[in-house]
Design brief:
heterodimer; A: 469 residues; alpha+beta; Beta-Lactamase; Heat Shock Protein 90; 10 helices; 14 strands; B: 355 residues; alpha/beta; D-Maltodextrin-Binding Protein, domain 2; seven-stranded mixed sheet; 44% helix; signal (chain B)
Chain lengths: 469, 355
Amino acid sequence: MRTKPTSIRRQLLVMTLIVLTVINGVAIWAAELYANRAAKLSYDRLIHGAALQIVENINLLDRKVIVDLPVSAFETLALAPEDRAYYSVTSEAGSLLTGYSDLPSSTYVTASDAKAQENSSSPIYFDSFYRSENVRFITITKRLIESDYSEIVHVTIGQTTQARQQLADEMGGLVIQFLITFFCITLGLLMFGIWRVLRPLKSLRRAIELRSSTELTPLNTDVPSEIRPLVETVNYFMSQLNITLERLKRFTSEAAHQLRTPLAGVNLQAQNALIENDASKRQTQLQDIINSSELLTDTIHHLLEEATLTHRMRSQAFGDVQLDRLTKDVCRSLVVWALESEVEIEYLGQSSISCLGDDVALTQMLRNILENAVKYSPKHSVVEVNLYREKDLICLTVADQGNGISDEDKQHVFERFYRSKHNHTVGTGIGLSIAKEVAEHHGARLILTDNQPRGLLIKVVFEANGETV
Amino acid sequence: MKALLLSLMLLVSLCPVANAAQLNMLPSKESNQVELNIWGAANFDAIEPLLKAYQAQSPDTTIVYVEHSSLELFNRVLSIQPTDKKPDVIMSPAMDLQFKLVNDGYAMPYRSEVTDALPQWAKWRDEAFGFTFEPIVMVINQDILGNLAMPESREALLSLIRERSPLVQGKVGLSDIETVGLGYLTWFHDSQQSRTYGRLLEAFGSHHAQLYPNSSAMLQALLRGDIFIAYNVLGSYAFEWSQNYPWIRTVMPTDYTSVVMRTAFIYHEASNMPQAEFFLDYLLSDDGQNILATASSLIPLSESVTGTSSLSEIRRRPHGIFRPIPFGLPLLVQTDQAKRSLLLEEWRHAMRIGP
């Protein structure tokens, strides 16, 4: 099952929506809270004002409390035109002086509160359910003083909460309307922004779409700095691909050339052998044909090997390689073949060394170098193989006692199909070039020097990225 | 509250002129009947055309109209027991008492197209609805004027009383504000509005004003010659009387003319809620208002209707600034027992009534 490809646009939109919704949700919640508070405050002031007006009009006359309700107090209350109002004026003992007798009482009944009230004369607000409606009450206490007499009265006013609810709803509604508009505008702007930001990606896609399949030049589309690395990577990849393609093209033509010439030679030799009457000469010619075809087989073998290795080097990850064991194994596998040419292979390495690498490729590299060394060794000579550490480096050397190669040739010996003019030994010219590729793949250097007193010394130098066991 | 109730009931029961409730019935001729129970303060004569017109519309309704004085009505509503027969609609011109009842939760809210069409000042909380617009007038027997001009304002009335002091001694009629809800309402309004209030009180007191239990009784006394001047009479009745008896002149004071609104509300425990709503809609509808304007002396609130007792007709007469008593919370002050006793004390003192 394939997962649906993620879309940056959709992700941005979803995130934007979530953020906006959360912000707006919080804002609406806060607005409701604020609206309720503001409405409560303003209408609390209203009933406070009304209560103060009533208190103003309560007086003592001959030790009698006279309550002369002012109409203005009720006109103040009527500013909430649709709300019921209740009031009462009671003496300290709790007996009703005027008004509603059954109003719920606040906390003023407790003595300590009453004391606090007298001193501060601050109002006490409380909510209660009265006559099957929510009613907001206020109680104000006043001490009336005549020359030698004083009396405490409580004024309580209650008002239903319709107007304050309405005000709160109105304010809240206004804010919500604003927020909805804000939400829509913000969303629109953000969508536009997202479209703008993602536009370079679209133009990049179009630029790639418009290319022919063979065009591998770098992309030059103008993109933001965040996307630039991506474009650079694509460009790098394309240049790699270009190099690979070039190499393949060259290799194919060289290989064709290299195979065509020996095949033509074999063909010629075979025709000569066909018309040769001398049996001994024909024998020689047939032997030549066999030799040529063997060489051809080697060439093909190397070419295939190279192709295999190239593929392997592209695809295979590095592992831990016991370099000393690998070297010994290669030497061991070639020692019999070398003895056929009466050459000895001698392994001088002592330490056990490992590194990161591709064991198959390394085996092939060493094998090619070793085969090469044996091939150019005179009879009864020794090829010395050594493996050692030198500071941070790992060195693998193969030294023969052959003729060596000239300095001029040293520069070209790793080129594919290069054959020195002075070289008369049969060879494909691919072995060392494979060795070089493998060495480069491992970040190693191949160094050719003259062996003392004679011969060639090939040295492979690895960075010591492995562990000495 | 209870103290007020008790004192009011005591007053009502002690007062010899207080009318007992009168029960009037308009029985339906249909066999399948519903009953609509209306408690009101309007004279049955005045309200009958409306009730009849309503019954014509809904013939299966038997209408019971119980007539009270406005204060009586208020007290009766307060003292309804759970087992009592409940009224469906309550109507009264005593705006303060009506407001108090509505504020205290005796009304059932009701909304319809008809109530929505009412102006905002003519209703409160969709619970009480004004249906008449009645100027408060003074009525004068023009025979006493002699060569003096008809007094058009309170100021002029005071000069008239001064001029004709011996003649009008004991011949000024007032509502007894202690027992008449409407009288108290208009007198209180005067006390708030007018700078002449103190002098009026003084003049009425010194001339031994006669006290009457309602506007009709006052007008009858005027007709009999018991009194020559009646102050603060319901315009709706007065206009009708002065039409019938030309020597009785109705004056809307030009300094200001108080206006009261009869209000109606559906009792919160009405036994016949749908009929009550239906009746209320009819009362406030153009049809109902038209009946009031043409067939009844009551002056409907609606500006659009025309008729002998319509608002447009009233506006054509000389009048002062109409000062409708606002139907709102300030009316609560009028129902306050402390305030009431202050005002009554002043009143009794002026009228030389013993405490």
